[in-house]
Amino acid sequence: MSNIIAILAALLYLAILFGVAYYAEYKLKKGKSIINNGYVYALSLGVYCTAWTYYGSVGQASTKGIEFLAVYIGPTIMAALFWPILRKIVRICKTQRINSIADLISIRYGKNFSLAVVVTILCILGVIPYIALQLKAISGSMNILTGNTETLPGLANILGDNTLYIAIALAFFIILFGTRSIDASEKHEGLVAAIAFESIVKLVAFIAVGLFVTFGLFNGFGDIFSKAANDPSLSKLFQFNDTGSYSTWTGLILLSMLAIIFLPRQFHMGVVENVKEVHIKKAIWVLPLYLLLITFFVFPIAFGGKLLLGHTSINADTYVLALPMQQGAKWLGLITFIGGFSAATSMIIVETIAISTMMSNNIATPLLLASQKFKTKGDGQLTNPILNIRRFSIILIISLAFLYDKLVAQHFSLVSIGMVSFAAVAQFAPAVLGGIYWKQASQKGAMAGISIGFAIWFFTAVIPSLASAGIISMNIVDQGLFGLAWLKPLSLFGMQEMDSITHCFFWSMLFNVTAFAVVSLNSNRSGQEAYQAEIFVDIFRHSSVPDSNTIWKGTAYLPDLSSLLANFLGAERAEKIITTYARRHNISLETKKADPRLVAFAEKILGGVIGSASARIMVSSVSKEEELTVDEVLNILRESQQVLGANKELRKKSAELQKATAQLMDANKQLHDMDRNKDEFLYTVTHELRTPLTSIRAMAEIVHDNTDMDEEQKAQFLSGIIKETERLSHLITQVLNLEKYESGKQLLNLVSVQMNSLINDAVRTIRPLANEKGIQTAIKIPDSMFLVQCDEALIMQVLTNLLSNAVKFAPQNGQVSVTLQSTFEELQVRVHDNGKGIEPGLHELIFDKFFQAKNQTLRKPEGSGLGLAICKKIILLHGGDIWVESADGNGSTFIFTLPLS
Amino acid sequence: MGAFSYPVISIANQRVMVGGIPLLFLYVLVVWIIAIIVFASIAHSKPGKKDE
């Protein structure tokens, strides 16, 4: 494939990347954030998979077998700990406005400037080779794609080197999307969207090659593995071959567990660019799944490459690209190249932003601000110089990586450079993890641990690399430092069983952790350190009340503080920030002296912009801070905790009181309702009792006063008295029954009842009454037998009541029917009449007590007005329901249900 | 972590093919998939009180 096509493809891909980033920022301006999504967050963490994964893992699998997987299993295991560890770091960084790992360590240990510088230098030294590795992968893959085998070593023909132009384009992209705002803690919408997009591209491309090799060049996994099994040099890779392999495997797992959090690019995407803590939950399983998918075809490609290209001089690191190109699949080769290109560029972009932020905040900006000329700059005029520093840092990092690639990296495999970087950033782990879980961890301990770990890393990993590249003499490797055999870089203290990286990791971490713990336990902490330790370790307690317990002691003047903030943020924004903060914390802005909380807040705001080290220098330049003793800090924290505790207790009590008040109000309302109902009920009952009583009295008086009344007439009156007495007695019985149902005194005598028979009995009972009006009764029951658990007498009462009502309201020669239906859960009985119906507004009310009595406008047939109320109570007692369906003029259907279980 | 570490992993460290795939590869793959499923179910289960 021609060089031009390769260059054009790379540039086209970069243009698409620009497009994705622009689109994300355009959507943000429209109010929609693309990166506010758990899957995008998880994909952005896929920046872990660089050109090393894409090309190097195949190379490693073809020489060391399964060992390469340790680098992906480590992050999988660590993902399980994301919620307790990564989330805590995210919370700390958000509340403290931290934007790099150097800031995190520096702020935790009393905002120590030296620590920030050491961490930054270690990051630069550890990671620039790693960036160079990506450039090496880009140039190597481009050579394979174009068939160019004549590459000149070093810087000869630099202008004819494609990598130079790719590096320039990448620097342009990073400057454009990574340095838009001076606030380094601000989210980079376009950048994160582009990185997530790149994760998809490299995954799809790698899987495409995997499918091509597995099913295009071979007949599936079984075919590749069986052919590899016949080759002794490959079949030995199917398993661990000695006990040393286990230690290497475990060491690499532990190393990569730390790398997934502490590599600057991982820290940047996982912590600084995190939009919501809850997105971490998605990353816990999506990231391991991503790693599984991207490594799934590594073995088929590695073994396929060995079987087909093993006899050639092609480097195993390039099998991913070489296999499709050798087989004439040029377009697949181009796609594969783009996949590798995306893996390399995503790493370069994020790593460069992370390192350049640290470089500018902890080294360049403090130097710049030390100059009186810049200190006295006016409103917002420091914004551009600081942005320019960051831009310069980006160019410097890319340039250094380019030079390293051309001068040094050509001597090493992709994997070896990557692992050296992993071991470098692992040195931060004790200081960070100790800092967020152990209050006793001190600045001196952290400095001792990182320094000694760094020294041993340099001695055991970097020195041998430089020696094997011929940059320094091999004497130190062969004979040891100062000729001492126990100081050999690759077998320190005589340990020879481990491979070089596990060896470096073991000794550096052993010394690092030991120094960190021993020095921390034996050193005094400053007030500031004790305060930061408290905040970091108990971040979830403190972050719920931000700034409530800020400590700062000294003198600062408000105008100086405002003008300092204005230098970086502009006068308008600075004033707004100060006013809002003061209003929220009831701080008066009338006095000239600045409230200590305001000073600490200003420092935190500046820390987000220029890093904690520079922020501290700037605030110190406009204030006179007095050292706080540990006792003073602890007193403040204790008081703060007491206030916090008291507030919490008060809030709890207040909530309890509110709940009790609501319950009381509810009970009071219920009492009022019950009282009103009782009055209403008494009124209705007495009214209903008075009617028959009045009739009885009237008829009795007539009989009493007319002694000469003939016997027939007298019998008529006496019959009327008996009838009214029966009505009275019926009414009293019903009232008493209703009271039993309402008070819960009525117990159900549950037996298995055949509903079919019960309905037949009820209809038979009511038939004489129906016949009197010429009403036809119909029963619609399926053939099957319906057994239900119920109180037979009470359900009979309900059926009789509904049927007698239906007969009452049906017209002369009308129709009444009963239907029985069953579902899996309940029986449904429907009693229908073709009377004049009930208007919808009364469907609920007719089940109220004495509803007929209360509504004198309705035609009042015989009855107490308690029948339906009693029916409802009985059905509810059975766990069923009762209601009416009716349209005015179209008859009524009363329906009740009984549960079958 | 235990399932990926010595001595547990040494159980699968045999020169045996299962379904045409080396046993050790298959073991790591299966454990990996199980881990992902477990992580997903735990991550999306209801939050406990200790979350805050």
Mean pLDDT of chain B: 83
Unreliable stretches of chain A:
856-860
Unreliable parts of chain B = none
Summarize the main sheet of chain A.
5 strands, mixed
CA gyration radius of chain B, whole angstroms: 15 Å
- DSSP summary, beta strand count of chain A: 11
Please report the two chains with the greatest interface, counting residues with C-beta closer than 8 angstroms to the partner's C-beta: A-B, 32 and 30 residues
Largest sheet of chain B: 2 strands, antiparallel
- Which structural class matches the secondary elements of chain B? mainly alpha
Count of discrete alpha- or pi-helical segments spanning 4 or more residues of chain B: 1
Fraction of residues in helix of chain B: 40-55%
Measured between the Cα atoms of the first and last residue of chain B, the distance is 26 Å
Helix content of chain A: 55-70%
| Strand residue content of chain A | 5-15%
The number of helical segments of chain A is: 36
Side-by-side strand order of the widest sheet of chain A: 6-8-9-11-10
Give, in order, the helices and strands of chain B: EEH
Number of strands of chain B: 2
Helix/strand-derived class of chain A? alpha+beta
Strand order of the largest sheet of chain B: 1-2
